[in-house]
Amino acid sequence: MAPAAPDFSSVIRLEGVQKYFGAVHALRDINIAIGRNEIVGLIGDNGAGKSTLIKVMTGVLAPTSGRIFIRDREIQQSEYSVRMAHDLSIETVYQDKSLAEKQPLWRNFFVGRQITDRFGFIKIKQEKEVARQILIDVIGFRSAGITVDSTVGKLSGGERQGIAIGRAMHYNADLIVLDEPTAALGVAEVRKVIDFVRKIKNSGRACIYIEHNLAHVHEVADRLVVLDRGRIVSQVDPKDMTVAELTEYLIGLQHEH
Amino acid sequence: MAHGSGESFVQRFEALPIIIVFVLLLALFMYLSPGVFLAPYIYTTFLSTLPPLILLAAGLTFVIGAGEIDLCFPSIIAFSGFVFAVLFKEYDLGWLAVIAGLASGVLVGFINGLIIAKVGIPSFMTTLGTQFFWAGMATVLSGGKSYALRGVEESSVWQWIVGRPFASVTGVPWLQEFSIQALWTAVIVGFLWLVLTRHRFGEHTLFIGDSNDVSRVVGIDVDREKIKIFTLMGFLAACAAIILTLENKNFFGNQGQGYLLTAIASVLIGGTSIFGGRATILGTLFGCLIIGMVEAGLVAAGLTGAWVRTVQGLIFLIAIIFYMYVDEPQRRQAFVARLGSFRRFGSARAAE
Question: Which of A94, A101, A149 sits opposite B210 (nearest CB)?
């Protein structure tokens, strides 16, 4: 766990980040900073580069060029990885890639940072005990018949997002990245997820929230960042624009293509 | 229901279905050929002949659990067996020959892993290619010759790896036949069971088999773990090669060929998912016992050897369908639905 530096202006900052996939220019000259207790909504059409951008931020993909600062300190690109992002208190909740389906919940909570002895053998009892606490205290699953031994495949979409967000909160992340957490969820389940996003904000953390549904993200975000064809085209305060105006604006971008 | 208890019945008791099948088959063979299956010698024979199969299948449990496949190991049995045999016989290197044999298997497995993880060729293609390459190398280097290891049972290598430690015990003839490779195999398989169920590496293996994408985002170095898995497979195949060569007191170029399907079948009969993400060493062990027992049991029951593969293939298919039913409810429903529409189709035709 990295010590929380008392004074930093942004949790993460990208300067001049470019990403190519072969000949495809997926991210063009990205400059963005995320404040310490800010919910940033990332919006844009399919293929705008939203997912690529957060993958670069969270160490899954290396940028082709550009600089990454975490808590104002520059990160060596060659060293940056998912594990390092975890160590620097950045957690990601992917739409459908956060949890492994056939594995029990307790393994999903700890995979990648298992509690082990020095030979690498997992302390199963301890992991299950902590997992039980996360399930009850952080996520608030008490009666749904879900235990730490349940396999992920048996959970509903909303339950899975709850598990993944709860896991991120348990690890005391400064920044939680949510990649379309409400895609393919029913109305009641969406409510739960939005409540989780509020919990993130109330606990003093920052959050990047990628969302297709503009109404959802407009409701909780402090700032909206609009991506189009790999470029940040504008940053909007949700108070200055209604959902309808925002929709108009995004459709306008489409017609420029 | 299963939701409420968290774990399903099958999950809670590892490999339970296959253990039941094993016991039933054993009872059947005891009934059919009591002279063979109620005497101790068949079991001491198993202890000397099954270890190579069990070691291969244990390694394959990791490979298949990770959602990959290895077709190369029969050639490692040929190649590493050759490296060991030639150094042991022609150069008289003793234990160094054992180490060289193991190292050659590790190297072949490591190269497989590199091609799969770093170059990104699917494991099926990679190991199909390397299978031909290393089998070819073994044939070229050995000149197609076999190496008879005459007098090998005098060496400490033979005595320690495949010896009969109780040969001098009098009065208990079956104990004299006890072969020590069974003990080494038990130790290795026990250790691998621990690794798969409670070590970080085992957990990573199953997560990779579940989904490469999920594994990457939770911080598993997928490429490195895959290289480790194929290297482990190479090591275990080399162990099998050396045990086999010493037990036969002979090296011959195609000594690995019989193992390809029996090892894969043992793993899948045991309950490891062909789709990856779920694997059981205990199940694999019983899968091997069943495959071995069917072979001995059919011959003892008076059927010719030609029947053995047929029946093994049948058991294999039944096992696959059974696991599909138990573990993949969506597939089961789809299957039942298809069956239903098929039946309706049939009755509609009859009505015409």
Answer: A101
Residue B329, pLDDT score: 67
Q: How is chain A split into domains, by residue range?
A: 12-102+151-256
Nearest-angstrom CA–CA distance, A240 and A243: 10
Orientation angle between helical segments B259-269 and B73-89, nearest 10 degrees: 130
A154/B7 touch (CB, cutoff 8 Å), yes or no: no
- Summarize the confidence of residues B97-104 as an average pLDDT: 95
Q: Are B211 and A103 within 8 A, CB to CB?
A: no
Contacts of A58 in chain B (CB under 8 A): 217
B329 versus B61: the higher-pLDDT residue is B61
Q: At what angle do helices B51-65 and B73-89 cross, to 10 degrees?
A: 140
Between CA A210 and CA A193 the distance in angstroms is 13
Regarding predicted confidence, which is higher, A248 or B7? A248
Using the predicted structure, report yes or no on whether residue B9 has a pLDDT greater than 70. no
CA distances from B285 to A71, B13, B14, B295 (A): 52, 15, 12, 16
Could you read off the pLDDT of B192-231 as tens digits, one per residue?
999 999 999 999 999 999 999 899 888 899 999 999 999 9
Nearest-angstrom CA–CA distance, A236 and A221? 10
Give backbone dihedrals phi and psi of B7, rounded to 5 degrees, phi first.
Answer: -100, 145
Full-model pTM: 0.84
The full length of chain A comes to 257
Q: Which residues of B are less than 8 Å from A80 in CB distance? A: none
How far is residue A92's CA from residue B29's CA, in Å, rounded to a whole number? 56
**pLDDT class of A240 with cuts at 50, 70, 90:** confident
Q: How far is the C-alpha of B332 from the C-alpha of B62, rounded, in Å?
A: 26
> Burial of B151 by CB count in 10 Å (0-12 exposed, 13-18 middle, 19+ buried)?
exposed
Contact B290, B314 (CB under 8 A): no
Rounded Cα distance, A5 and B38, in Å:
73
Closest C-alpha among B120, B122, B133, B22 to residue B70: B122
Domain B2-351: give its CATH code. Answer: 1.10.3470
Q: Which CATH class is domain A12-102+151-256?
A: alpha beta
Query: Is pLDDT larger for residue B104 or for residue B337?
Result: B104
Closest by CA position to B282, among listed B74, B70, B66, B54: B54
How many contacts (CB atoms, under 8 Å) link A and B?
85
| A225: closest CA of chain B, how far (Å) | 23
Residue A115 sits at the chain B interface (C-beta within 8 Å): no
Label residue B188 by pLDDT band (50, 70, 90). Answer: very high
- Give domain limits for chain B: 2-351
pLDDT at A2: 44
Q: Which residue has the higher pLDDT, B344 or B291?
A: B291
**Closest partner CB to A124 (pick from B11, B198, B273):** B198
Distance in Å, alpha carbon of A114 to nearest chain B alpha carbon: 7
Pick B207's closest partner by Cβ from A81, A111, A119.
A111
**What does the pLDDT average to over B72-87?**
95
CA distance A257 to chain B (A): 31
pLDDT in tens, A126-170: 999 999 888 887 777 766 678 888 888 888 777 888 888 888 888
Averaged pLDDT for residues A200-225: 87
**Chain A, nearest residue to B6 by Cα:** A150
Residue A50 burial (10 A CB sphere; 0-12, 13-18, 19+): buried
